[in-house]
Amino acid sequence: METRKTTQKSIRSEIDTNIKENGYTLSKLGELSGVNPGHLSEILNSNPPRAITIGQLDTLAKVFKKAPGWLYELYPEEECIAEEKISRPRLIPFLVRCAEIGRQDCIDVVVSRLLENPKNVSILFTVAEQLFQTGGKAMSVPFYQLVIEAEKDSHSDHFLISQYRLFRALQGTSPEDNWKAVIRFEPYRNRLSENHQLDALLHLANACYMLQKWKDVERYADELRTLAIAVYQDQLRKKESCKTVEMLHTERHLVVYYGQSSLLKGVALTMQEQYEEAEKHVIKYTDLTWFELLDEIGHKEVKKFNIWGRANLYGLNLKKGNVSILSEYVAFLQEHPNEILPGMLTIIEAANKHNFCIDELLHRYSANLSSFHDHQNPINLSQNFHFWDQKTEYDFRKGNTSQAIDQLLLCLDLSDKMTYHQGFKRCVTKFWKHLPHATNEQKDRYEAILEGRV
After folding, report:
1. Which of 42-46's residues contact partners 24+ apart within 8 Å by CB, and which partners?
2. Residues 6+ positions from 6 with CB-CB distance below 8 Å
3. Whole-number Å distance between alpha carbons of 248 and 253
4. 135 within 8 A of 143, measured Cβ to Cβ
5. What is the pLDDT of residue 375?
């Protein structure tokens, strides 16, 4: 009886089959794919064959009109893992690409093999870092979680940086998830290197700012200021002793961490109506010209803090009831258009608190105020909600009831999009309080928001 031979499917056999089906020569395939024909020959014909990169396989898939991820299930065994030896230069790009196109099946198979040896955790960490740094924060999350679960040493760099990156990657999902991420990461913040600590403390403070947890903002701002001063003094000592001052590997210039620590502390105290204490911290970042080790970027940052500080000093005086500085504050805003939106929020808060009229200002800046409808940036979104919440209060107080209800519905919609439950409940309560004055159209919009039809 004749025995029929079966050819096992492989990457090379599939490439060879597609070359023949399309009637290509290696030269033609090289021309279409951009892969050197000599390399193609070595990949297909040499013994042992030249390795094929995941980028080359993707390029060939496009030429053969195959779906993304073509032959990925064969790639690890043929190109990355042979006789328990792992090729990091090929496996890491492969896992990154699998995450990008959603080939979780391939990731699961490879991860199972990798975790047989604890040393391979570093591969998963590198994959996570590449995804995080190239904009794939959400895709990096499962890999950081694998590192955290597999790493036995909770003081290792891989473990700590994975905790930090996971905290960063989970920000912006929802207030509840943001707070869970803060709580999960918080115990590890002081184990990071100073470079990472500066960034981590700033992001922790900003996360708590978004959550309006002012005591936590204060705490992280204090820690950030202490660390920034320590790093600054250390760099000054090295400079004075003629030692090489190593460049800080941080996201921002060192002066930003010092300035932001005082700015965030001032904001937190302001929100708790501790205006005198807040002013002390605002003064600290209004003039940072004394800060040494400033390059061109550093000088630009100092100028920004000066503008913010001056704006916030005007705001504090206004909130304390010093209405006489309003015209001076408005002139300042005219000189610095970027400060108009936060400035108008401050002004309308003060107007509601101290019962003065700003109708002319609201009319003058009506075009600017329309740009409060920026739903992309979380901080802008928060400012957006709080401005219209205050504008609603202002119009109810002035008797502009119909306009106030329209703005109240805008706030209701915003709080829903932000998953800001406290604000949502407050808007619902206000709407029912003013229900007798609502038009049928406003009632319909209210129901549409509650039912998720907006």
Report:
1. 43/12, 43/15, 44/12, 44/15, 44/16
2. none
3. 8
4. no
5. 47
SS3 state at 81: strand
- Residue corresponding to tokens 């901080």: 379
For the chain, give the number of residues.
Answer: 454
pLDDT of 67 reads: 95
Distance CA 80, CA 94 (A): 9
Could you give phi then psi for residue 82, rounded to 5 degrees?
-135, 125
CB 90 within 8 A of CB 129: no
Buried b (16+ CB within 10 A) or exposed e, 350-372: bbbeeeeebeebbeebeeebeeb
Question: Angle at Cα 170 formed by Cα 130 and Cα 214, nearest 5°?
Answer: 130
* Pairwise CA distance, residues 230 & 224, whole Å: 10
How far is Cα 265 from Cα 258, in angstroms, rounded to an integer? Answer: 11
- Side chain identity at residue 269, one-letter code: L
Residue 86 DSSP SS3:
strand
Interatomic CA distance for residues 277 and 37, integer angstroms: 72
| Cis amide prior to 48 (ω within 30 degrees) | yes
Compute CA 417 distance to the chain's CA centroid, rounded to the nearest angstrom: 17
- What pLDDT is attached to residue 452? 87
Other Cβ atoms within 10 Å of 171 Cβ, number = 16
CA-to-CA distance for 202 and 220, rounded, in angstroms? Answer: 7
Query: CA 415 to CA 450: how far, in whole Å?
Result: 11
The tokens describing 194, both together, are 């100073």
Residue type (1 letter), 364: R
Residue 178's contacts (CB-CB under 8 Å, 6 or more residues apart) are 170, 171, 172, 207, 210, 211
- Retrieve residue 382's tokens: 């928060």
Q: Give the Cα separation of 410 and 406 in Å (integer).
A: 6
Q: Flag residues of the chain having pLDDT under 50.
A: 1-6, 375
β-strand pairing of 85-86 with 81-82: antiparallel
Tokens (6 digits) for 337: 């258009």
Q: What percent of the chain has pLDDT over 90?
A: 81
Residues with Cβ within 8 Å of 427's Cβ and at least 6 positions away in sequence, in order, are: 389, 408, 411, 412, 415
